[in-house]
Amino acid sequence: MIIRTQDESAIYDTEKAFSIFTNENNEVMALGYTGELAYKLGEYKTHDRAKEVVEEIYAFYDSQSKYDMPVV
Asked: Which of 20, 11, 57 is nearest to 38 (CA)?
């Protein structure tokens, strides 16, 4: 799946990402396979909202080929 970042400055291929997760700053991040770099996909007002977005990505993963990070 292809994901465009929230600020529309980049796109990432989830097939090349090791994981997508939330951090303590309410950001949704993609970690590369090497584990050396994490890429910010979007930032939200609450951790619960960030978790909802990760859940949406999970739900779309098998049924869609691209996903735009929603704005707050």
From this structure: 20
Beta bridge partners of 13: 2
Structure tokens at 36: 């050396």
Q: How many domains does the chain have?
A: 1
| pLDDT tens digits for range 41-69 | 999 999 999 999 998 888 877 665 667 77
5 lies in which domain range?
Answer: 1-36
Q: Of all residues in the chain, what percent carry a pLDDT higher than 70?
A: 93
